[in-house]
Design goal:
TIM Barrel, 319 residues, 12 helices, alpha/beta
Length: 319
C-alpha cells in the first residue's frame, strides 16, 4: 500500500461496494469525486469482466383488499332465477311441481327459490320444497329457499330451515332489526358448511344489528352474498344508479369500499338484483328489462306466480 490515504480510500470503497452488492441504496461517497479514484477504476475494470445484476429491492406489501370476493362458488342466486311463494299450495294453487319445472326449462330459469317459514302462504311449504328440490335435481335446476329470519327467535329459524334440507342455497330475508342479535353467526355456524348463504333485503338490513355504524354491520354479514330487493315502486323509482346502491352497506360509493365482498360469479357486481313486477305499485316485468340489462343474466324475479298470472314468461326469457 502506497500511503495511508490510499488505505483509507480502499477501506471506504470496500464498505460502499458491500452495500451496492447487497442491492442497497447508498450515496456515492465524497472521497470518490466523479468516480475518478483509483479504487473506482479497478472496480470498473472488474465489473466489465464479471458483470453483476443487482437483486430487485422488495417493495412494500400490498394492503389487504377492500373488496374481497364472495366465498361461495356457483351460488344459485348468481343465475337467472325465480322465487315462488304460494303457487304449489293444494287449494287455489297456480301449478304442479312438474308444471313449474317445465316453465323453468322452457323459459330459461336456471334456479328456483321457494319460501319457507310460518308466514309462507303455502301451508304445505315443507313437503312441497322437498319435492321441488328432488324434481329440480333430476333436471339440473338448483332449488334454494328464502324466508324471513329477522323477527323470529333463532331456534324457530333454525328449525324451519333444517326442516326443508337439503337445499342448494339459503337467502335469509332480513328487513329490520333482528330479534336474534347473533343471527349472522348462528346461520353461518349452523349451515355454512352445507350450502351457500346470502341475504335478500332492502336497506332495512342497515338496522338489523345493534352496531354503531354500517361498516360494523357489513362485517358481521361478511360471509353472506347480497341479493337486493330492487323494487321499482311508484313512490320509490328504481334508476340505473340505485341498482348498485340500493342498499348502501354493499355500496363502494357510500362506504369507501371497505370490507364489502364482490361476486365473481355475477360479473364482480356487489349484489344480485331481484325485481318484483305487477305488485305493490310495481310496473310489469317488461318495464324492468332496460334496468336489468347491465346485470343480465345475474338477476331474479319475485315471484314466478306473478310472471304466470300476467303472461310474462316470454318477457322473462328475454332477460
Amino acid at each position: 500500500m502506497r500511503d495511508k490515504k490510499q488505505l483509507a480510500e480502499l477501506h471506504n470503497f470496500s464498505v460502499w461496494l458491500h452495500w451496492r452488492w447487497e442491492g442497497k441504496t447508498r450515496p456515492k461517497p465524497a472521497w470518490l469525486p466523479g468516480g475518478k479514484g483509483w479504487a473506482w477504476q479497478v472496480y470498473n475494470e472488474f465489473e466489465k469482466k464479471h458483470p453483476h445484476t443487482r437483486p430487485p429491492v422488495p417493495g412494500p406489501k400490498p394492503p389487504p383488499a377492500n373488496n374481497p370476493p364472495s366465498e361461495w362458488k356457483n351460488a344459485p342466486w348468481c343465475k337467472k332465477h325465480v322465487h315462488i311463494s304460494h303457487g304449489l299450495r293444494s287449494i287455489d294453487g297456480v301449478w304442479t311441481i312438474d308444471q313449474l319445472i317445465s316453465r323453468c326449462l322452457q323459459y330459461g330459469a336456471k334456479a328456483i327459490f321457494a319460501q319457507f317459514g310460518d308466514d309462507c302462504p303455502d301451508p304445505e311449504w315443507v313437503g312441497h320444497t322437498k319435492q321441488l328440490y328432488q324434481a329440480g335435481k333430476a333436471v339440473g335446476i338448483p332449488v334454494g329457499v328464502w324466508g324471513r329470519c329477522d323477527y323470529r327467535p333463532w331456534p324457530d329459524v333454525q328449525a324451519a330451515i333444517r326442516s326443508v334440507m337439503p337445499v342448494d342455497g339459503l337467502l335469509a330475508d332480513v328487513e329490520q332489526r333482528c330479534e336474534d342479535q347473533q343471527l349472522p353467526e348462528h346461520l353461518y355456524d349452523e349451515f355454512g358448511d352445507e350450502m351457500p348463504l346470502g341475504v335478500i333485503a332492502t336497506g332495512g338490513i342497515d338496522e338489523s344489528l345493534d352496531e354503531s355504524d354500517v361498516h360494523a354491520v357489513a362485517d358481521r354479514w361478511r360471509h353472506f352474498d347480497f341479493v337486493g330487493q330492487d323494487y321499482y315502486k311508484a313512490d320509490l323509482p328504481l334508476t340505473p344508479d340505485t341498482g348498485e346502491n340500493f342498499v348502501y352497506w354493499r355500496s363502494t360509493a357510500k362506504n369507501d369500499g371497505r370490507g364489502f365482498r364482490h361476486l365473481p360469479d355475477a360479473n364482480n357486481r356487489w349484489h344480485v338484483p331481484v325485481v318484483m313486477p305487477n305488485a305493490e305499485t310495481c310496473p310489469p316485468l317488461a318495464f324492468h328489462i332496460p334496468l336489468l340489462k347491465d346485470y343480465t343474466p345475474h338477476c331474479g324475479v319475485w315471484d314466478a306466480e306473478l310472471i304466470e298470472a300476467n303472461g310474462e314468461w316470454p318477457v322473462f326469457a328475454s332477460i
